[in-house]
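USER:
I would value a second opinion on how I read folds in token form. Give me a protein, with the fold worked out from its sequence. Write it directly below this note and I will take it from there.

ASSISTANT:
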Amino acid sequence: MKINDVKYSGKGSTSAASAAGKHICVIPFPACGHILPLMDLTHQLLLRGLTVTIMATPKNLCYLNPLLSLHSPNVEPLLFPFPPHPSLPREVEQMQDLPISFLPHIVDALGKLYNPLLQWFQTQRSGNSKSPPVAVLSDILLAPWTVNLASDLGIPNICFIPFNVAAVHSWLGKPSFLLPFYREAFKASMESQGFVFNSFKELEGGKMGFIEQKFVKHGRVLGVGPLPAVNERGAGAGAGADSSSEVISWLDDSVDDSVVFIGFGTQITLTKHQMKAVATALEQSGVRFIWAVKEPMKRAEDGDDEQSMIPPGFEDRVRGKGLVLKGWVPQVAILKHRAVGSYLTHCGWNSALEAIVAGVLLLAWPMQADHFQITRLLADEVGAAIRVCKGLRTVPDSTELARMLVDSTTSRQPQRVRAMELQKAAVAAIKEGGSSYQDLDELVEQLSGFGNGCSKIETMNVIRSSM
């Protein structure tokens, strides 16, 4: 069963009735792996009757467009210019253009929107239009300033966490292993009114319970995933929808489980040597494949100016056997297709969830951040993935990688069986009555219960008016 066969529905639920008219402010972190799942969650909240304002900067407004077209007038953007920062290129407002080392600078720049947001909230509370927001739902990486913002407003902050639970469990257990920026973000998040994960209890419920009992001070830990996409998005930037039908037609001519999909998300860009190793493995293996090649970053790590370089002549030599797609790729549709049997991936959480819901075998090449914990969970604990390589700069052995590509499309490996079992559990979680469906209900009820107290700003205004 595919994820499009099962959708959350707020219609007729008690949470939808209680949520009617409640207004919340959503503050995303501008990276595809963060903003897209938060928009998916926002979609579910809108379906259940909430009204939403989403903060964005101009170059990130495109990620809000599906919600704006589906839910207007119950969702509105709140646009601010991206604040300048001495360590960021002037035109950059999104992490996919930068290595991960620039992440703290993005957060620092967005923190300059603290006062403009305070002023906007005060305007909302002047009684001009709809009711002011009763809560802030924000990305955990922004917690160093969004938790304080909500506190100054006298309203709750709930942290959305786009990382998987296993990674957060590991980081909280050993905070000394984290860089200072991440330690600060997680420490600040403990003052929020709860965590919301894009995960499900059948996969990570034990670790959710541990985090709730030991770390979160004031709220609950909820798992509401795998969140269905607002629409069938792809990977990479740009519209690209016209290419989708061509790709699907190519897959239609392929045998079931015979195609390998290769993609490393919106943040990872392969070096010239890594590109050559993957290309050589594909040629040696002879497997049918689709390879999503990311555009080079505007600011490369280590001065690497030969990113994403496809070896000369490769596309001609594999013509008929494979497709090399540059820019936008209809990733969800590809993974769902019956012809795709395995997925060579960095094991980012969004990509891993899409593969889980599609029942596709994961060939894991973890590179940074939470990729290693995700690989440990899916390969070692669950047995639904196979390790092929690790490391951001590691160059895999082409002959060994070629063998693994062939095995992933020809053998009935136990990991493939486990992947199918995990798919069933994931789909059941988001069905009505499933664990994630119930947690989403609880989140909506929690948000609907906010807004009855007197905020700090309202109290300050009363004091000023009496002076």
Q: What stands out?
A: Residues 50 and 144 are 26 Å apart (CA to CA).
